[in-house]
Amino acid sequence: IGEIRRYLRDNNSIRVSRSLRDTAYKALQSKEKLSRELQREPTITEIAKDLDLPREEIVLALDSIQDPISLFEPVFH
Amino acid sequence: MVNQMKLEFLNRSENESFARVAVSAFITPLDPTVEELTEIKTAVSEAVSNAVIHAYKEDEKGLIQLECKVDSERRVIIIVSDHGVGIEDVSKAREPLYTSKPNEERSGMGFTVMESFMDKLEVVSGTDEGTRVTMLKKLDKAYGI
Amino acid sequence: MVNQMKLEFLNRSENESFARVAVSAFITPLDPTVEELTEIKTAVSEAVSNAVIHAYKEDEKGLIQLECKVDSERRVIIIVSDHGVGIEDVSKAREPLYTSKPNEERSGMGFTVMESFMDKLEVVSGTDEGTRVTMLKKLDKAYGI
Ligand SMILES: Nc1ncnc2c1ncn2[C@@H]1O[C@H](COP(=O)(O)OP(=O)(O)O)[C@@H](O)[C@H]1O
Ligand SMILES: Nc1ncnc2c1ncn2[C@@H]1O[C@H](COP(=O)(O)OP(=O)(O)O)[C@@H](O)[C@H]1O
Ligand SMILES: [Mg+2]
Ligand SMILES: [Mg+2]
């Protein structure tokens, strides 16, 4: 446990907000790439595999960058 | 029901994002596409933000419940409820562009968005009895798993 | 209390990840460090997996509750509870390496992990009365917000 803590301290003193934004950016790129390759929308699992990240990171990150509403609203205005 | 959960949280606007992520995480084992997930999240946002904005009087602390069930046919059922002021005329409230708060830049499109992103929408409400919004969406077949 | 929420879910192993993400999303507005969030998530995992694995008899469907509160001093309080078989001897259960299921590759380190990653750990339990694990962690002050 001491070792895990030291590892975390050395590597992760950054804020969650920044880390999530980085992951979200990668996830969007991966989504574009996989959409082209698969000729359909990729699933969360496929993106997670592509980035070698846990699915839960992807889920959290995808929510951190954009409010889906703000993506959608211009259609109606 | 293959899996189910319930959330309860305060009527604070940051809990809209919390509810959205909680639902996303809960249905992630079904491996939805990003598009399906975005649609469900958007519908959840609209239902929860309605409860945050409309259900309780200004500065009144109120609780919002969200229930989610998934079954073996990949159906996702989401129920958002509050014990707030309720809606007098539900059919009018569901009309596109109708809003009771035109001065606050509300679009009046919340129910329309829920309806178009989900397969089914049911709204049960009554003055001073609170509101209960039930939404259903059947996910496409699973690709990745 | 500045914000609070409650979850309730079935004792299914996939809900461990659900609980972890839900707690993460709930405390994200406080913008913790990645280290703090990882520690909290690991502690939540241990508490929830204990309730999934130990609280109910095999094949018994049981409910698990998780409550989370954050206050104005950046304290995060997490309570995980079940209504399962309970723990006869809590101090023994909390000892490092103690496990009642040595044959199933349990490490017996669950409570030790919770204790070392959080600032406080309280375990209240009794045979057939279920178990209630309360954990507290104070987040470092925020620079970014
Ligand atoms: N949970 C609720 N409690 C009370 N009233 C509600 C609730 N949800 C919706 N309403 C009413 O229904 C109307 C239409 O909702 P909606 O289509 O989401 O538009 P908007 O939120 O932009 O006003 C709201 O303006 C409000 O009067
Ligand atoms: N929610 C619970 N319900 C019943 N027993 C529990 C619960 N949580 C922990 N225990 C008991 O405490 C012991 C120690 O827990 P822990 O330190 O997490 O080790 P492990 O889970 O690897 O066995 C468990 O083996 C179990 O006997
Ligand atoms: Mg609305
Ligand atoms: Mg354990």
UniProtKB/TrEMBL annotation, chains B, C:
Molecular function GO labels: ATP binding; protein serine/threonine kinase activity; sigma factor antagonist activity
This enzyme's EC code(s): 2.7.11.1
GO biological process: one example: asexual sporulation
InterPro entries assigned to the protein according to its UniProt record, in alphabetical order: Anti-sigma-factor_SerPK, Anti-sigma_F, HATPase_C_sf, HATPase_dom
Histidine kinase/HSP90-like ATPase domain location: 35-141
Catalytic activity: L-seryl-[protein] + ATP = O-phospho-L-seryl-[protein] + ADP + H(+); L-threonyl-[protein] + ATP = O-phospho-L-threonyl-[protein] + ADP + H(+)
Pfam families named in the record: HATPase_c_2
Record's keyword terms, sorted: ATP-binding, Kinase, Nucleotide-binding, Serine/threonine-protein kinase, Sporulation, Transferase
PANTHER family in the record: ANTI-SIGMA-F FACTOR RSBW, ANTI-SIGMA-F FACTOR RSBW-RELATED
Alphabetical list of NCBIfam families matching this protein: spIIAB (TIGR01925)
Family (UniProt): Belongs to the anti-sigma-factor family.
HAMAP family: Anti_sigma_F
Function: Binds to sigma F and blocks its ability to form an RNA polymerase holoenzyme (E-sigma F). Phosphorylates SpoIIAA on a serine residue. This phosphorylation may enable SpoIIAA to act as an anti-anti-sigma factor that counteracts SpoIIAB and thus releases sigma F from inhibition.
Protein name stated in the entry: Anti-sigma F factor
Source species: Sinanaerobacter chloroacetimidivorans
Record lineage: Bacteria, Bacillati, Bacillota, Clostridia, Peptostreptococcales
Gene transcribed to yield this protein: spoIIAB
